[in-house]
């Protein structure tokens, strides 16, 4: 899978019952179009700067964000 798909799945799991995508989008500073393109799979390669912005809003470290089987190299294209 692309890192964009892994990113979408990971934020979906992290925000479940805690925060809407709209709130995450707003608080992260990512544009609606950018966030929507990532979620819709239009952007398959998410920039680290975008991941950092999301991790800050979720109040987790990058190591915690990436500490998931989704980001095992064997699972990524």
Helices and strands, with pairings:
Elements (H helix, E strand, L loop, with lengths): L2 H13 L5 H8 L3 H8 L8 H11 L3 H5 L11
Helix pairs in contact: 2-4
Structure, explained:
By secondary structure, the chain is mainly α. The protein has a single domain (3-62), classed as 434 Repressor (Amino-terminal Domain) (Orthogonal Bundle), CATH 1.10.260. Helices cover 58% and strands 0% of the residues. It contains five helices and no strands. It has helices at residues 3-15, 21-28, 32-39, 48-58, 62-66. The longest helix has 13 residues, at 3-15. The protein is globular and about 30 Å long. The N and C termini lie close together (5 Å).
Taking all residues together, what is the mean pLDDT? Answer: 91
Structural class: mainly alpha
- Tell me the β content: under 5%
The largest sheet is: none
Shape: globular
Looking at the overall shape, the CATH architecture is Orthogonal Bundle
CATH topology group:
434 Repressor (Amino-terminal Domain)
Q: What is the gyration radius calculated from CA atoms?
A: 11 Å
Short structural summary:
With 77 residues, the protein is mainly alpha-helical. It has five helices and no strands.
Please give a handful of descriptors for the protein shown.
single chain; 77 residues; mainly alpha; 434 Repressor (Amino-terminal Domain); globular
């Amino acid at each position: 899978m692309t890192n964009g798909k892994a990113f979408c799945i990971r934020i979906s799991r992290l925000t479940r019952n805690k925060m809407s995508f709209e709130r995450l989008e707003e608080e992260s500073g990512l544009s609606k179009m950018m966030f929507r393109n990532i979620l819709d799979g239009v952007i398959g390669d998410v920039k680290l700067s975008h991941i950092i912005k999301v991790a800050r809003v979720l109040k987790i470290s990058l190591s915690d964000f990436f500490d998931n089987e989704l980001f095992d190299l064997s699972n990524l294209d």
